[in-house]
Design brief:
heterodimer; A: alpha/beta; 8-stranded mixed beta sheet; B: about 325 residues; alpha/beta; 10 strands; about 15% strand; globular
């Protein structure tokens, strides 16, 4: 099976390509990249005027499977992923049961392989049952296929447990991801800012995040264990990460595109669809996060795709935190590009090259011999996320029914076209 | 043939009329649901009621109170009964919400049963109101939602301040105490600002949210004595122990000494109010609660007339 992508603008900053090129795919590999490739009798896609990039990698996805499949399941989640241009995703272990046994890891890997749309790398829990008391069997989980460990949604509160987890992960050549929020200082729903002043709805202060990020950065520096900070949201957090990266601690960090695009003010329009942990914050935080990405203090964007059913997204104080985000990440990044913050190269680095580096994925990129994982998008195509275009089982996002510009039109995973735009 | 056209035309007119009626549906969920003109109309109607004017309305009203309340619930009940309306009381322990029904579904059910108006009191915020306005098509008056809004109390305070001070332009009012958890403050600051009042706040630093300037607060006082000196009227707020999930103050005794209305401070205060219920000797010294500088009982009395006026206004804008 051979496929030829003709005339697209191929952008891959990992290997410094930005040129109008053809790409020949044979089987599951990229065979050739160059000008004027012509092979007769094979499938040819004319992608002139479109952008071709190495498949996006999302380090933070909630597939809700097993156990919460009314919100999402592996099949619907993977459809979202490839519609958003992702060919590799890391799924979070806060399922039911949580991913703390080899059996559950196997269930996810097997089902993802059967669906076969993209690569799914499960994350295991740091602690058994995500209870924060006792470490998981990290060796067994790694052997079963876990790429990293996190108690996402229930941050590891105990500092000693986190230190030990970092040491053990280091020896296993893996890493710990943490959703940093200190529970002793945050129990509310929204940022401690204007909307809190306006409504009195209990806040989650930025210092809850900052304190735990500082703790984890210190532990990473001391243990030399790799910590990946999930969804950074405040400007002081950026300063803390910068400080410890400068000291040489093995820290990486992600940001949710929603935190780059929205501030707490959007809650006035969209209510609980604007509720997420950590919360949307102020304009100055948003700008600091964008700057941090550009400087490399924050390494990548990750969607924290977090589906919830409509009945779990009622009034703000009663609703679950989180937003779906797989299909809207690229449009948001392209909007920020149009606003002058990012280049196309930047976007590919944040969504593809840098996450590949964090998970030590060496054969990623548009290079002959590498797996044919590619995303083709149209920068100017306008579309609306609604019942017709949404692949998720849920619709909890501030972007629901909003017009966006920029859309993935084709996703290729291991040489197969796994998504083709129909609208 | 002509008859059929006429019938269809009549049908169309009915549908349009219904649509327009629906559009004019009044939801008083937040102070921002009232324009300045609405407020003037409501306040002058309240004055008419206070002077003895009577109104006889028809309809069924549900008081859906999911939080403890004495004065607000009974004040609404008195207002409704004086207007000749039928009142049904519902509290959280007796409601289907105990069985897991959502608040919106409860409201939709009340609409279908045939109520003409629902007055709600909830421990949670209704903000940003869109879901309710889109799903419920009978008027709703918010009688307090979490720490968010309490629009009728704001109208009462505005009315009582006008009675005491006349024109409010340039006058100074300070809210004292638990600002963070106060829906009275949040709906009040908006209305008072709109009528030219300068608003200050004073209270424990732990109970004063950031970004108050964006709400129109002009001064934040560290010392209550400075606030008292500045203000034409001080509004003491209740320390809302039931909403406080952490330790905000050292002790109630210290709180009273530091921020409460003591006998000594009473000498310097010009006029004072309190939305009730009062924690005696925490917010205000019990001995001076109803002394001459106190407008507390005026607030309570005016409450019935304000609510009569608002209910009349809401129900008439629906049927007119």
């Amino acid at each position: 099976m051979k496929i030829l992508l003709k005339g697209g603008r191929v952008v891959d900053p990992c290997i410094n390509i930005d040129d109008e090129l053809d790409i020949l795919i044979e089987g599951d590999r990229i065979r050739e990249v160059g000008k004027d490739i012509n092979v007769k009798g094979i499938e040819v896609f004319d992608v002139k005027g479109k952008v071709v990039v190495p498949g996006f990698i999302d380090l933070h996805v909630h597939l809700r499977d097993p156990g919460q499949t009314y919100k999402e399941d592996i099949e619907s989640g993977l459809k979202c992923a490839v519609a958003g241009g992702f060919t590799t995703i890391l799924c979070m272990p806060n399922t039911n049961p949580p991913v703390d046994t080899a059996e559950t890891v196997k269930y996810i890997i097997d089902k993802a392989e059967r669906v076969g749309l993209c690569e799914v790398l499960p994350c295991g829990t740091v602690t058994k049952g995500r209870k924060g008391k006792e470490l998981s069997n990290m060796y067994l989980l790694k052997e079963a296929g876990c790429i990293a460990f996190t108690d996402d949604g229930s941050p590891v509160q105990d500092a000693l447990l986190m230190k030990r987890a970092l040491q053990i992960a280091k020896q296993l050549d893996t890493f710990i991801m943490n959703h940093c929020e200190d529970d002793s200082i945050s129990y509310g729903h929204i940022n401690e800012g204007y909307i809190h002043a306006l409504t009195g709805i209990a806040p989650r202060s930025p210092e809850a995040e900052e304190i735990m990020i500082a703790r984890d950065c210190i532990l990473s520096l001391k243990t030399e264990g790799h910590i990946h900070i999930q969804h950074v949201s405040s400007s002081l957090s950026v300063e803390i990460i910068r400080h410890f990266k400068d000291k040489g601690a093995p820290i990486t960090a992600e940001v949710n595109p929603m935190h780059l695009y929205f501030t707490e003010e959007v809650i006035k329009e969209v209510g609980s669809n604007g509720k997420v942990n950590p919360p949307l914050r102020r304009e100055e935080d948003k700008i600091a996060l964008i700057e941090a990405l550009r400087e490399g203090i924050i390494d990548c964007v990750a969607t924290d795709h977090a589906p919830h059913a409509p009945h779990e997204k009622g009034l703000i104080e009663e609703s679950m935190p989180g937003m779906i985000g797989l299909q809207t990440a690229l449009p948001i990044m392209l909007e920020l590009k149009r606003q002058g913050y990012f280049t196309l190269n930047d976007i590919v680095r944040f969504m593809s090259c840098n996450p590949a580096r964090i998970i030590s994925k060496k054969d990623h990129g548009i290079h002959p011999g590498n797996p044919a994982n590619l995303t083709v998008f149209d920068e100017n195509k306008e579309w609306i996320l609604d019942e017709n275009t949404n692949y998720s089982k849920s619709r909890n996002t501030p972007l629901w029914k909003r017009r966006m510009k920029g859309k993935v039109i084709m996703t290729i995973y291991m040489g197969k076209v796994v998504f083709k735009d129909q609208y | 043939m002509c008859l059929i056209i006429c019938i269809n035309l009549a049908k169309y007119v009915m549908i349009e009329v219904n649509r327009l009626l629906l559009k004019s549906m009044r939801y008083i969920l937040s102070s921002t649901d009232l324009t300045n003109k609405d407020i003037e109309n409501i306040l002058s109607l309240a004055s008419k009621f206070k002077r003895g004017y009577k109104e006889n309305l028809k309809g069924f009203v549900s008081l859906l109170f999911l939080e403890p309340s004495t004065r607000t619930r009974l004040s609404f009940e008195m207002a409704l009964k004086k207007l000749g309306l039928n009142v049904s009381n519902m509290t959280s322990k007796l409601s289907s919400m105990e069985k897991g029904e959502t608040f919106i579904d409860t409201l939709i059910t009340l609409e279908s049963i045939g109520f003409d108006l629902v007055v709600t009191r909830t421990p949670f915020a209704l903000f940003p109101y869109k879901e309710i306005k889109e799903n419920v098509h009978i008027p709703i008056i918010n009688a307090g939602d979490g720490s968010n809004q309490h629009p009728t109390q704001a109208l009462i305070d505005l009315y009582t301040l006008r009675e005491a001070l006349g024109d409010l332009k340039g006058k100074k009012v300070v809210y004292i105490g638990d600002i963070s958890h106060s829906r009275v403050f949040r709906s009040g600051v908006d209305l008072l600002n709109r009528f030219g009042v300068k608003v200050g706040v004073c209270g424990p630093e732990t109970l004063i949210p950031a970004d108050l300037d964006k709400l129109g607060v002009e001064e934040i006082f560290k010392k209550v004595d400075d606030a008292i000196e500045w203000a034409d009227v001080c509004i003491w707020l209740r320390l809302q122990r039931e909403r406080q999930k952490e330790q905000f103050i050292t002790s109630e005794y210290e709180y009273f000494l530091q921020f409460g209305l003591t006998k000594e401070r009473y000498e310097k205060v010009k006029l004072f109010m309190h939305p009730g219920p009062v924690n005696r000797n925490v917010d205000i010294d019990g001995d001076i609660l109803y002394n001459e500088k106190s407008l507390i009982l005026d607030q309570v009395k005016n409450g019935v007339f304000i609510r009569m006026a608002l209910i009349t206004y809401v129900l008439q804008s629906r049927t007119s």
